[in-house]
Amino acid sequence: xxxxxxxxxxxxxxxxxxxxxxxxxxxxxxxxxxxxxxxxxxxxxxxxxxxxxxxxxxxxxxxxxxxxxxxxxxxxxxxxxxxxxxxxxxxxxxxxxxxxxxxxxxxxxxxxxxxxxxxxxxxxxxxxx
Length: 129
Hints:
Layout: H1 3-15, H2 17-23, H3 30-40, H4 44-59, H5 63-71, E1 78-82, H6 93-98, E2 101-105, H7 112-115, H8 117-128
Parallel strand pairs: 1-2
């Protein structure tokens, strides 16, 4: 998106964060609404820069070689997926096979913490143990 397009989108989302959560199939609770409002309050340029960085880095031809280097570095990593979003993952087999653990958060989409913050924290604690 261009910056003006992003500003229009953010203005819409900021005017109805509960609607944004509901459209993402996230239960609107006081906790999820507070997290959504904080997330949406970030400056548009920050949000755009973060998104652009992810796209640019992961599109580089050397990205998977760099990823292999990190994954083979000896520090265990754990994967946690939302039950409703796991099928849409495009994770290479070499990533999945190197994971120290792989857990699925029940009844969650791609916004795991907003779906169930406590459940997500429990999965992270389990992975750390």
